[in-house]
From TrEMBL:
Residues 1-18 form the signal peptide. It comes from Marasmius oreades (fairy-ring Marasmius). SUPFAM superfamilies: Zn-dependent exopeptidases. This is Peptide hydrolase. InterPro entries: M28_fam (IPR045175), Peptidase_M28 (IPR007484). It holds the Pfam family Peptidase_M28. GO terms for molecular function: aminopeptidase activity; metal ion binding; metalloexopeptidase activity.
Length: 421
């Protein structure tokens, strides 16, 4: 632990010299620039951001008394860092875990001051003219679907949610789950087709890739995504994150193993990304999306998987094989297309449609860079059926229904053959 004066000095020097990223950028008292759904930006210490999120939810609407009490509870930190806390920050972050709202509720844009400018213009996202989903055009899918099993998904979720006490991006062992995913990708795809993309904290993004049939390294990319980090009310010690989002990573891993095991290649390249630091404000995906944009990479479409394991019996899914929520925003044409894919290829699933909102998961980072994106989940934010263990130490593997999660592997494989063919 740094003493306060040397910490302040480190912050001042870091700012003045534009020092390279280091662990200390993510200490309790480090100041992050975060952007709220209104696009208001605010500089807050990490301990305040997390303290507001983890605190018990106050009655809504907040009163001036509760706003002031929340501010006062962080007065010791604010007085050290010289920062203030706006009403909006308290409104968005306070009790967020207790309120079971999706995503961090902000984007951490400390590394990207251009985000605000982009948000004020109409984003121009070009969606390719995908053909109407048609299983009869894709006989190559049939043998791949035969390889989908619940036990494969459960195995990956078990590893991710039990072999590491936590996958929180600030925890001391944050790198280990990324290295395990890398080892799995590498065993199927080969080490040259598997990469780590380092972040300014000690948890890299993991990238697995299948080249286009043409071998063209610049072929447009069809992208699968899910986040490898986890959180809870005690993230530094325990955060199994089995549903959020080991389940999404597991589905993505199964898809890549099956594609490669079937020697599938498309007209386009296929990549799978396991993102770091989603719970810290979409950190890993923002960095990667920005680097892809800067490198001029063409992404034909992105499919993000968020929490696909919690599949309770409900009044609306009786007789259905699963529940798949297709998030309706932020790119309507992508959501409409994904809905058609699920309808055509997984007709036994209950389909739901719900808005996700600002920054709710990593697809938003790619959307911010102008790429066409869509996200699927069991249940969207603010759904009464959302996993009650969400963002707690109760988000464990024993609560999930992998016999139903297989539908997400099927939907993902179908989406791949439709958009990468
Ligand atoms: C501020 O006070 C809280 C509660 O008493 C304590 O947990 C925290 O460590 C303090 N933080 C600093 C920076 O003094
Ligand atoms: C849901 O219902 C099915 C059959 O209707 C049953 O086999 C299964 O155990 C139920 N699942 C849960 C989590 O209650
Ligand atoms: C969640 O849903 C309830 C009931 O539909 C609604 O009143 C509330 O505004 C929603 N909250 C958010 C954050 O969308
Ligand atoms: C975890 O689940 C148990 C049993 O349902 C419940 O009593 C407990 O409050 C839950 N813990 C949290 C942190 O939600
Ligand atoms: Zn998540």
């Amino acid at each position: 632990m740094l003493t306060v004066p040397s910490l302040l000095l480190a912050i001042a020097l870091g700012g003045a010299l534009g020092a390279p990223a280091s662990q200390s950028e993510f200490d309790d008292l480090s100041i992050r620039t975060i952007q709220f759904p209104s696009y208001h930006e605010e500089k807050l210490p990490l301990a305040v951001i997390e303290g507001l999120q983890f605190s018990p939810a106050l009655p809504r609407p907040l009163s001036s008394e509760s706003l002031n009490a929340a501010r006062a509870s962080f007065a010791n930190i604010s007085s050290v860092t010289g920062t203030s806390i706006s009403d909006e920050a308290i409104e968005e972050l306070q009790g967020r875990y207790g309120r079971r709202l999706w995503g961090p509720g902000y984007m951490d844009i400390t590394a990207d001051s251009e985000v605000e400018a982009r948000s004020l213009e109409e984003r121009q996202v070009t969606v390719p003219n995908f053909p109407t989903p048609d299983p009869s055009q894709h006989p190559e899918l049939t043998p791949m679907l035969a390889k989908v099993t619940a036990s494969e998904i459960k195995g990956y979720v078990t590893q991710l949610s039990t072999a590491y006490a936590t996958r929180y991006y600030r925890s001391t062992n944050a790198r280990a789950p990324a290295l395990w995913i890398q080892s799995q990708f590498s065993s199927w795809l080969g080490s040259s087709q598997t990469k780590l993309a380092e972040n300014s904290f000690d948890q890299p993004n993991v990238i697995g890739r299948i080249e286009a049939k043409s071998g063209d390294p610049n072929a447009p990319i069809v992208l699968l995504g899910a986040h490898l980090d986890s959180t809870s009310q005690t993230p530094s010690t325990k955060a199994p994150g089995a549903d959020d989002d080991a389940s999404g990573v597991a589905v993505m891993m199964a898809i890549m193993r099956i594609l490669k095991g079937s020697n599938y290649q498309g007209t386009y390249a296929i990549e799978a990304h396991a993102y770091a630091g989603e719970e810290g404000g979409l950190l890993g995906s923002q960095a990667l999306a920005k680097s892809y944009k800067a490198a001029g990479k063409n992404i034909r479409g992105m499919l993000d998987f968020e929490m696909v394991g919690w599949q309770p019996n409900t009044s609306t899914n009786s007789g259905k094989s699963s529940t798949i929520s297709i998030l309706s925003d932020p790119v309507t044409a992508m959501s409409t297309h994904m809905t058609s894919v699920v309808k055509a290829y997984v007709p036994t699933a209950e389909r739901r449609s719900v808005a996700c909102g600002y920054g709710c998961s990593d697809h938003y980072s790619f959307y911010n860079q102008g790429y066409p994106v869509v996200c699927i989940a069991s249940y969207g934010p603010n759904d009464s059926n959302l996993n009650p263990g969400y963002h707690t130490t109760n988000d464990t593997v024993d609560k999930l229904s992998f016999d139903r999660s297989v539908d997400f592997v099927k939907a993902g494989l179908a989406w791949i053959v439709e958009v990468a063919a």
